[in-house]
Each structure stands twice: as structure tokens, then as C-alpha cells.
UniProtKB/TrEMBL annotation:
Lineage of the species this protein comes from: Bacteria, Pseudomonadati, Bacteroidota, Cytophagia, Cytophagales
CDD domains for the chain: TilS_N
Gene Ontology, cellular component aspect: cytoplasm
EC number: 6.3.4.19
Main location: cytoplasm
The keyword Magnesium is annotated on this UniProt entry: no
Keyword annotations from UniProtKB, A to Z: ATP-binding, Cytoplasm, Ligase, Nucleotide-binding, tRNA processing
Gene responsible for this protein: tilS
Name of this chain's protein: tRNA(Ile)-lysidine synthase
Record-linked InterPro entries: Lysidine-tRNA-synth_C, Rossmann-like_a/b/a_fold, TilS/TtcA_N, tRNA_Ile_lys_synt, tRNA_Ile_lys_synt_N
Any one GO molecular function term: tRNA(Ile)-lysidine synthase activity
């Protein structure tokens, strides 16, 4: 096929000394790719995934591909997945699950068998269809570039330049056998509707459509690279790394052009939906410079985005609650509180105290008689209530944290200390009235929190 070697060399996809793993379904594209690699003397093995989606057809595909591997005298690898069952278990579509299973398996095969890259048979019509499909769903510049020629994960696409017509002509010229996937004939899937109904119309408008595709994709990729450079620079300017996550000043974000677009680009790797992000930003910037809805939160599978007092916080999803810590003997060593820091304890007679009650919030003084062992240290929970020092009545711990202006991103990491079944210290924030030092206090306990940095 004219242009095959030139394309590989131009994009430095691989060379004759490299060992390739070729993904072969048995369809015409992958059979042509296999034959071209064999004809030009490349070293490769064949990998086939049986997704068990088409009954006897799927089983016949696997046998066919294995026979072709034997014909070419190359290593053959195959695996079978119950894709529909796995998709149901994951709560994903069959198409998404199949893609994840396929590339996940390839990632295991390559290091195990010494393959340096995975070659797939995506071609120019596939690239165009993907661009159009992404366009119908709403996409950015990256989506408009379609299928990349190569990926950072080691996937290469040597037929990216070739049209379906070129591939069919080569297969006929070489007398190659291939399998037909009957699901490609139905318009049940959006990609097939684009392939059967949209692309033919575009080709009648411009028969040279695919010939211009590389130049168009090149422009889009260049523009995308420039945008990403700008996004990286502006992210570095507004992102303030903190122990619990990343903080962004709302005013700094708003001072930039197209802040919502930037927010979307910055946060794309964290999985927030475009709709949720748009609603979040509009709630933050509802009217001019007025901040509204403190505590507004949106979540992805891995992260939370929180608006709190003129700042936006990007936080990882909370880890499972650490186990409560029961202290039954006087702690001679620091007590580690995951996510908060560590607490040290000391006790002394009142006669050795200077009488200073003005301590930082990380230091707490107690009447030892009211802070008897055992102690229970745990993360605070909704519904926790205690009487703060100096107040006449009880208060929810959640309200105390809000009134004390503990940033929302940090509240989930706050611990409490219980003694006698009551909260005696919201650690790092406030002690309880009951455990205060009085005229009758004989011995004092001082607990000090060293926060996580």
C-alpha cells in the first residue's frame, strides 16, 4: 500500500528492530494491517479479544484469527471476556467496558512478552467518524482531533492515513480473507449512523475530504497544544497547593478571560461533568462580584469541588474514616490522628502552672479530674453535640466548626476527644465547659496538637 512505510517513518511509530503487538479482530482493517507488517518484515505478535457479544460469530472470529496467526507464523494471544456481565457490574456501557478490558489486557501483555507498542488498525474513515461523533456530543479541541496517531500509553496507528477504499483495494489485490461483523451493518449505534448516512453525503460534497483530513487535524492539534500551554501557565498562577488539596482564589479566576472555560480545562482530568461545573461556577459568580452559596459542592468519582469564603477548593474524595483510637493508659508517646496531625499530652500540679489561660487553639488545658481515662479519639460525626467553654448551652459540633470559620475542605479531618462518654475537646478548635480549670482544680492536663503540614 502506497504511503504505509512513509507514514510510519514520518511519525516515527516503530522500526524493524521493535517487537509489536497487533490488535486483530479479524475484520478487513486489522487483516490488512497484519499483512502489511508481514510483507515489510516487521516483528510482531497477534492479540485477539473475544468479547462474547455475538454468540457463535464471536467464537468463529477467534478461531479465524488464530488460524491467520498460524499462517503468518507469529505468536498468538487471545482472551475471552463476559463483557455484558462485566459492564453491568461496573455500571458502564458495553462499549466503554469493552474498550477498557481490551486496552487493559494489552497493557499486561506488552511487558510480559517484550512488545514495545500496540498497533491498532484505525484508519482515516474511523478518524473522521470519531471527529463527527464527538462534535455531536459536544467537545473541545482535543475531541475534534479524533483518534490520535499515537498515545502516551504506547498505542500506534499505522493505517491512520489510509481510507476505507484504499484498504479494500489492498485486501482484494492480495486476496486476503476477513470476517464481517454483522453489527456494523445496523444503524443501532450512533457511529454506524454517521458512517452510513453522514459521511457519504460529506464525500459527495467534497470527494477529497479524507485527503484534507491530516492538515485539518494538524491545525486542530496545534491549536490544542497552544491552548494547553496557556491553561498550564494560568493554572500555575491561580492554584495554591494546600495540605488538604488545591485552593483557588475566586477573584483571581474571575480576573482571567473566559474563566468557566479555563475551569473546565484545568479540572478535566478530575472527572467533573461539564454541566455540573457550569452550574457550580454560575452559583459562585451569580451577580457580578457577589459570592453566593458558601459551601456549594460538586463531586466526581475521585474529587470534590467546594466553594468556601471566596475560594474554590479542589479536594480528593475523603478516605474511609480512620478507626477510633482508645487510650487506656497515660500516653507517653504522641498520638497520631490521620489527616489532622498528632497530639502530645502532659500533666502537672496546679502549683507548677503560671495561670495563663490564653493558649492557641491547638493547645487545650483541662482539669485532670474531669478528663479521666479511658479516652476515645475519633473523627467528629454529624449529630455530635457538646457545651463549648464559656457557653450556657450545648452546640452541634458542625455549627461550632462553621462559627469558628474552619474552612469546609478541612472540616472532615477534625477529630474529637471523648472522656466519660462526652466530647471534651473538638481538637484544635474548642474545649468543653465541663473540663475547664476551676478554683478547685488540683492537677492540669495539657494536650497539644501539631497539625499536619
Amino acid at each position: 500500500m502506497e504511503g504505509f512505510l512513509a507514514f510510519i517513518n514520518e511519525h516515527r511509530l516503530f522500526n524493524k528492530t521493535d517487537r509489536l503487538l497487533v490488535a486483530v479482530s479479524g475484520g478487513i482493517d486489522s487483516m490488512v494491517l497484519t499483512d502489511l507488517l508481514h510483507q515489510h518484515g516487521f516483528t510482531f505478535g497477534i492479540a485477539h479479544v473475544n468479547f462474547a457479544l455475538r454468540g457463535a460469530e464471536s467464537e468463529a472470529d477467534a478461531v479465524f484469527v488464530e488460524n491467520r496467526a498460524n499462517d503468518y507464523g507469529v505468536p498468538f494471544h487471545q482472551i475471552r471476556f463476559d463483557t455484558e456481565a462485566e459492564a453491568a457490574r461496573r455500571g458502564e456501557s458495553v462499549q466503554v467496558t469493552a474498550r477498557q478490558l481490551r486496552y487493559g489486557w494489552f497493557a499486561q501483555l506488552c511487558p510480559a512478552h517484550g512488545y514495545v507498542a500496540v498497533a491498532t488498525a484505525h484508519q482515516a474513515d474511523d478518524v473522521l467518524e470519531t471527529m463527527l461523533l464527538n462534535l455531536t456530543r459536544g467537545t473541545g479541541l482535543t475531541g475534534l482531533t479524533g483518534i490520535p496517531i499515537r498515545t502516551e500509553q504506547g498505542v500506534v496507528r499505522p493505517l491512520w492515513f489510509a481510507s476505507r477504499e484504499q484498504i479494500e483495494a489492498y485486501a482484494q489485490e492480495r486476496g486476503l480473507p476477513w470476517r464481517e461483523d454483522t453489527s456494523n451493518a445496523t444503524d443501532k449505534y450512533a457511529r454506524n449512523r454517521i458512517r452510513h448516512q453522514v459521511v457519504p453525503v460529506l464525500k459527495t460534497i467534497n470527494p477529497g475530504l479524507l485527503a484534507h483530513l491530516p492538515r485539518t487535524v494538524g491545525y486542530l492539534r496545534a491549536a490544542d497544544a497552544i491552548v494547553q500551554e496557556t491553561m498550564t501557565a494560568s493554572w500555575a498562577a491561580v492554584a495554591q497547593p494546600q495540605p488538604t488539596g488545591v485552593k483557588m482564589d475566586v477573584a483571581a479566576v474571575k480576573a482571567l478571560s473566559e474563566p468557566l472555560f479555563r475551569l473546565g480545562e484545568w479540572l478535566r482530568p478530575y472527572g467533573f461533568s461539564a454541566q455540573a461545573l457550569q452550574q457550580f461556577w454560575h452559583s459562585v459568580d451569580a451577580e457580578g462580584d457577589t459570592f453566593v452559596k458558601n459551601g456549594q459542592v460538586i463531586q466526581s468519582a475521585t474529587h470534590r469541588l467546594v466553594h468556601e469564603r471566596g475560594a474554590i477548593w479542589l479536594l480528593p474524595q475523603a478516605d474511609p474514616l480512620p478507626q477510633p483510637i482508645r487510650v487506656t493508659a497515660w500516653p507517653a508517646q504522641p498520638i497520631d490522628l490521620p489527616g489532622a496531625g498528632y497530639v502530645t499530652a502532659e500533666r502537672f500540679d496546679r502549683t507548677n502552672w503560671d495561670g495563663n489561660l490564653k493558649t492557641p487553639s491547638t493547645v487545650a488545658l483541662f482539669d485532670a479530674a474531669q478528663l479521666l481515662l479511658p479516652w476515645l479519639l475519633r473523627r467528629w460525626q454529624p449529630g455530635d453535640r457538646f457545651r463549648p467553654l464559656g457557653l450556657a448551652g450545648t452546640q452541634l459540633v458542625s455549627d461550632l466548626l462553621t462559627n469558628a470559620k474552619v474552612p469546609a475542605p478541612q472540616r472532615s479531618s477534625v477529630w474529637v476527644l471523648e472522656a466519660g462518654g462526652e466530647v471534651m475537646w473538638v481538637i484544635g478548635v474548642r474545649t468543653a465547659h465541663r473540663s475547664r480549670i476551676t478554683e478547685t482544680t488540683e492537677q492540669i492536663v495539657r494536650l497539644s496538637l501539631t497539625p499536619t503540614t
